[in-house]
Amino acid sequence: MATSENPAHKEGPVAKAIEKQTAKLPSDLFLWAALASMGVSAYLQTTSNPKKSLFIGQWAAPFLLLGLYDKLVKVEESD
């Protein structure tokens, strides 16, 4: 499948560095991190620590978004 490349669009050095480092990570790492944060949040909620529970529970969405970004970068094979 051919991708249409826009020569005017170039990746910056920060994006290239992030993509280079995240390419070394397994794709399911972010999913496990999200599930772990949900589990720790549930545990803290049952141990009467609601503030920490909410704080850690909010980590799941960013982990999943990072996983999605990582997967898209790997699929697109950006330079």
Cα-atom Rg, whole angstroms?
17 Å
Helix content: 55-70%
Strand content: under 5%
Structural class: mainly alpha
N- and C-termini, Cα separation: 17 Å
Could you describe the 3D structure shown?
The protein is mainly alpha-helical and 79 residues long. The protein has a domain at 34-74. Helix content is 67%, strand content 0%. It has four helices and no strands. It has helices at 13-22, 29-46, 50-57, 60-76. 6% of the residues are buried. The mean pLDDT is 85.
Short description, anyone?
The protein has 79 residues and is an all-alpha fold. The protein has 4 helices and no strands.
Write the layout of secondary structure elements.
Blueprint: H1 13-22, H2 29-46, H3 50-57, H4 60-76
Helix pairs in contact: 2-3, 2-4
Which descriptors would you attach to this protein?
single chain; 79 residues; mainly alpha; 4 helices
